Amino acid sequence: IAGQKSGDLWALDPVTGALVWNQRVGEGTALGGNHWGIATDSERAFMTINDPGNLGGSSRPGIYTYFVGTGEPSWYYEVQPDCGGERSERLRRCESLYGFSATPLSVDGAIITGGLDGRLFIFNSDSGELLFQYDTVEDFETVNGVEGYGGSIDSHSIAAGSGMVFVGSGYGSFSQVSGNVLLAFKPSE
Q1: Are the C-beta atoms of 39 and 46 separated by less than 8 Å?
Q2: Domain count of the chain?
Q3: To which H or E segment does residue 122 belong?
Q4: Which partner from 34, 63, 120, 129 sits 20 to 30 angstroms from 73, CA to CA?
Q5: DSSP string of 58-107?
Q6: Which residues, including other chains, have CB under 8 Å from residue 89's CB and lie 6 or more apart?
Q7: Per-residue model confidence as pLDDT tens digits over 14-71
Q8: Owning domain of residue 94
């Protein structure tokens, strides 16, 4: 199973390479589609789509979930911009750079992803219920005393280990929001 920059999700036979199924999920614009990869939990494939807001386009940035065996949709979450309050001052191009570009992470019944606007999202893998959301675009007091601030969550920036979730916040390429923090979260019981 593989995601593509075109916005397509492909399932191929692992022995023959023959196409099993295909879903067109996103627009696949210059900064759209699936950027860095997908996640699976053996039953479902989780594909993030960026598709920045294009005037007159049919952008639907978010996370889209399909059953691995059939290609049938399971659930999706279409992310919306959050430009209220001070966020519009902290985020350049807030109205268009809010999609999910980072590779999602599947761990312990949850799917974790982040937005170009610095928001971290954790969903229930089975139902798609939003379990947790956190805005990383803020100043942080760091353990090493370096001035820290969060930004866009992009690339392969989410990992888990030893009962913790680690998120790199800050990706300044392509007019996104730079930052310099590695955040560690300990999920509650």
Answers
A1: yes
A2: 1
A3: strand 119-124
A4: 120
A5: ----EEEEEETTT--EEEEEE-----TTTHHHHSTTTTT--SB-SPPEEE
A6: none
A7: 999 999 999 999 888 777 888 889 999 999 999 999 887 655 567 789 999 999 999 9
A8: 2-185
